[in-house]
Amino acid sequence: MSTDDPAEASAAYEPEHNAPAPIRWLSRVEIWTGTVFFGLLFLGVMYQVLGRYVPQIAWVGAGEVARLSMVALTFVMAGYLIGKNGHIVIEVFDSVLQGKKLFVALRVFAAVVMVLTCGALAWESLLMIEQGWRRVSTVLHMPLAVLYIFALIGFTSGIIHSIAKIAAAGRPEAKLDISEMEG
């Protein structure tokens, strides 16, 4: 690839562009799904607030929609955050070992731990799905197994993202930039 524009040339080597197409697609789906649940969370809370000032439209289910959306959002975004290093990481080792062979071994080890952890959580989610159809939420009467389906999806995504991180352990890694969120 030859280009005269330095910004375009550097963008081609950013970790996000080096990710395999299925991982990029999965990340987009996770972001959109997370956005939908965040929207439901926001609408549920705003409807609750409105219901306090206009009692005629108050609905108890708004709070439950907000709570269940928050739980689903948390589970669905687990894999995305693992793939973008948005989970808790010991970055001290990253800076100390950068450029050394042990750095790749550390990244592989961390990804293997995530595969095993997400695998255990996905297995437990599967077991909870089997048992969760009898229990329902208080107001909406939604089977709680539905929430565990989102947990299974999120932790399975975490496994996929972690396996991709193992395969890419020797290449630059995507970093979740939260500097814009800091005060």
Automatic annotation (TrEMBL):
Membrane topology designation: Multi-pass membrane protein
UniProt keyword list: Cell inner membrane, Cell membrane, Membrane, Transmembrane, Transmembrane helix, Transport
All copies of domain Tripartite ATP-independent periplasmic transporters DctQ component, residue ranges: 42-167
Transmembrane regions: 31-50, 57-82, 102-123, 144-164
Subcellular location per the Swiss-Prot or TrEMBL entry: Cell inner membrane
Source organism superkingdom: Bacteria
Major localisation: membrane
Family designation: Belongs to the TRAP transporter small permease family.
Name of the molecule in the record: TRAP-type C4-dicarboxylate transport system permease small subunit
Lineage, opening ranks: Bacteria, Bacillati, Actinomycetota, Actinomycetes, Micrococcales
